[in-house]
């Protein structure tokens, strides 16, 4: 669930108030955003069913989710700029068509290799589709209506976070037409086709009057650096950590260095770098980006190992695992709304730090329960730590983007928002890669069937310590955020903030 493209400096005149087409257009683009958000949470809950059916390897388990996040992250900023240059409606329709085709390929995949490839294609096409959503809203609705529209979008994000795991569990449990887990992808086909047909009719085309140029070399360097880092992490456990893996991970640092040099040169040549490096001179932005990256790592680790723990460790059905997560999702949504409206205006940065401490407290409660109850733990017993964690996460995800952007110059707000979202997705992909180290690395290679469950439970507990450590680092990094973030960009920033929250809710 994620998607934040630089919004245009000026927008074409909105349709006349009597024109109801804009509301049809809104429903279409929000449905597409909902489809992307739900797709991620659906896949998380169905991972054990998928891997059991396909006898997938450890690395395939990780790449089914990490491949999507990596492709999505690598294409977000470019997807937004393509929309600005060639038309947001055109790119939205291309993206939703590609996402629908990729969903069909996922649902029909004969093996895990094809599924991973299709998931990467899904992420790449989502990167074309999702950045256009709020740009289309901005170009379609007059300023006085955007507050209502962004409120609706926030509700859609919350609904996706709550309904995704449950919908995934139901579709997998029902085994429609004997297809098992495959309907979690195939359900996108009728939605995507309807969105394509209705979008062509009701969405009005718009472009940015001063669109920036593409930086394809920058995209290539970012993607290469992330692949060189994440691929050895996901394969390392299976291959007994070969020498080439260590060389690749060290080499990724040099590629990141080349990216920085290229971005500096790109800024001098045509003023349109992929990453606006001057933003990192703003202390709050640099610290906030570090928080966002680290937060993504923690979420990437937790949500995958949590699913594996419940279904493969405790032996729970996919439906029981899906319903167990409902208190968490509800707590996130409620706390997110309260934090922005009531708490942050009064307490500022302390709200985010309280969120990090609450998440740590929830993890410690979960650790105690997992140790105390062992394999006999129930969903009701898990509800307490999950609610505490959910409240903590809600206090972070909603106000974090505004805290990061609060001291960024207005003219760079769009670029900064896109970078925030991209970094969040990269952190998630890196966290999913680290699962090979923190979770599968703690499980023995040759276990008897009766040893498998307890091994997964022990590995889950070790993983929670890692996540708690990540949150401790986040708490300290938050001291560099502004004590009282201020909303500095009206309208555009509100939309960017909502969309930048989306990936954090995707877990």
TrEMBL record:
It holds the Pfam family MFS_1. It is a multi-pass membrane protein. It is found in: Cell membrane. Signal peptide: none annotated. Keywords: Antibiotic resistance, Cell membrane, Membrane, Transmembrane, Transmembrane helix, Transport. The keyword Transmembrane helix applies. One of its GO terms (cellular component) is plasma membrane. This is MFS transporter.
